[in-house]
Design a protein that fits this description.
Length: 503
């Protein structure tokens, strides 16, 4: 049902001038290192006009409409009538909702994780390069990039031979690109810190959230089994996976070969959302969250430029399936708590989408056609709730997480996401998170300066933040990923990522 609809939508997306002017990407998905570049952006105005009722009924949901902020449609009547729903209430729905309104974080959560149409539930395919790259035999990084491109093409050609899909959402992770070396570096960190603080009084208990194909799990267990048999004997690996399809894939990985089948007694795959966790785990444990924070739902906040009053974003979905933004000064308890905790944890030092000069704000407010609200700020309310669960249900945990502190092609705003899809093997960024649910990756950077302090405030634990390269120089055998000319993709890729650890 979705395929013909999506094909028409994407064809119209490419035919629009606004979308054609976006930078065209290479064939490789863009969850990789890069300098910060911004796509097209737009501003908000609350003035509007009524939509013609007859025109509304004739609109097809696949029609891509480039919306304007100077003369937005007046949907205030619908806003009063439509019910407010949450992502949890939509989990049982098989079709995308219409004639409802929802907080921005619920829209994002529903778009990414709805079991019937969510991006991670139905669309995502994680690239597996096959045999590990022999980096010592590769001339330099350009050759590695060329080889990677070849393997991407071969991988997707095989998928198309089985079932062609022009809108396949394919991306990779450092675990897959640098297998097994990346996973072995994580394993060395775990072994060393386990033996320093827990061995022999406690088992090595590892929780991993968002385990993808299960490759990191296997690399870690393989390394511990081959280098530390006594530690392996006491190792328990538990995956928490919200996606049923990925949970099945992870289970199949354990049965792939005799070597991996040997780990079956060590592994438990828990198919549920971490946000549904309600069991206290008192034992010391390590909690892995590698490239997970970037897809946590965020709330959208704009500020009154004169009073600095925050307003929370709501998305209205009309009866044609199109989206309209509203902002209200009534902040819900979750977002309100985030703003309070952030202010206390950082002593008020964090970026806002407002000019520091109040005089400048007043002058801008008087200019014609200027927006009456600031640019949006996207606050990671789900990440705060994750920290709550760690502190409440895993009181003796040690967190190891890696994620992007900076991303290319973000939309306009503070801590704004990259919103992108793939069509005909090309990555296509767009300029709003309010897009056809389930077909777009909504990927946020993490402000580690702020979130480290919030993690400390919520859990009471001490932390350390390192760059991706600094962490790997400490724990990886970097000579294994060095090319002939001395370059090292393991260290030079993912320059825009940081690693946070509990100490």
């Amino acid at each position: 049902m979705d395929s013909p609809l999506l094909t028409r939508l994407f064809r119209q997306l490419f035919s629009r001038r606004a979308c054609q002017s976006l930078r065209s990407h290479s064939e490789l998905p863009s969850r990789i290192q890069g300098t910060t570049r911004h796509g097209q952006s737009r501003s908000l105005s609350s003035t509007g006009r009524r939509r013609d009722a007859a025109g509304d009924s004739k609109r097809n949901e696949s029609h891509w409409q480039q919306r304007t902020d100077l003369f937005p449609l007046d949907m205030s009547e619908e806003y009063q009538k439509y019910p407010m729903v949450t992502a949890d209430q939509l989990r049982g729905r098989r079709e995308r909702p219409r004639r409802v309104k929802m907080l921005a974080r619920d829209f994002i959560e529903d778009s990414l994780y709805n079991p019937s149409y969510g991006y991670f539930s139905k669309q995502v395919v994680i690239f597996t390069p096959g045999e590990p790259f022999a980096f010592n035999s590769i001339e330099d990084e350009p050759e590695f990039h060329r080889l990677l491109g070849q393997r991407y093409t071969e991988f997707e050609d095989k998928l198309d031979a089985t079932a062609s899909n022009e809108s396949r959402q394919l991306w990779h992770t450092p675990t897959e690109l640098f297998r097994p070396y990346y996973g072995e570096a994580i394993a060395r960190y775990l072994i060393t810190n386990y033996k320093l603080s827990q061995y022999p009084y406690h088992d090595l208990i590892i929780y991993e959230m968002g385990a993808g194909n299960g490759t990191l799990m296997l690399n870690i267990l393989d390394y511990i089994r081959s280098t530390e048999p006594s530690v392996y004997h006491r190792t328990k690996f538990k995956i928490i996976e919200i996606s049923s399809s990925l949970a099945k894939l992870q289970a199949s990985q354990l049965l792939r070969s005799a070597n991996s089948r040997g780990h079956a007694s060590k592994v438990e795959i828990i198919n549920k959302s971490i946000f549904e966790w309600d069991t206290v785990v008192p034992s010391p444990c390590f909690f892995l969250a590698m490239e997970v924070f970037d897809n946590f739902a965020h709330d959208a906040i704009r500020y009154d430029p004169l009073t600095e009053e925050p307003l929370q974003g709501t998305v209205l979905i009309d009866n044609a399936g199109e989206f309209h933004e509203f902002y209200t000064p009534l902040i819900d308890p979750v977002a309100s708590r985030f703003l309070r905790v952030r202010h206390a944890a950082t002593s008020g030092h964090y970026p806002l989408p407002l000019p520091q000069s109040k005089i400048l704000r007043k002058l801008r407010a008087r200019m014609p056609f200027m927006a009456n609200l600031s640019d949006p700020e996207y606050i990671p309310t789900r990440l705060m709730q994750f920290f709550d669960i760690l502190g409440r249900c895993f009181p003796s945990h040690r967190l190891l997480t890696s994620d992007f502190h900076d991303l290319p092609d973000t939309i306009k705003g503070v801590n704004a996401p990259v919103v992108q899809t793939r069509y005909q093997r090309r990555t296509v960024p767009v300029t709003t998170p309010y897009v056809h649910q389930g077909y777009f990756d909504i990927l946020f950077p993490t402000d580690f300066n702020v979130m480290e302090l919030m993690y400390r405030a919520i859990t009471g634990k001490l932390t350390r933040v390192l760059s991706h390269e600094e962490f790997l120089r400490r724990w990886a055998y970097v000579e294994e990923t060095e090319t002939k000319n001395g370059e090292n993709p393991l260290l030079s890729w993912y320059k825009n990522a940081s690693v946070l650890t509990t100490v």
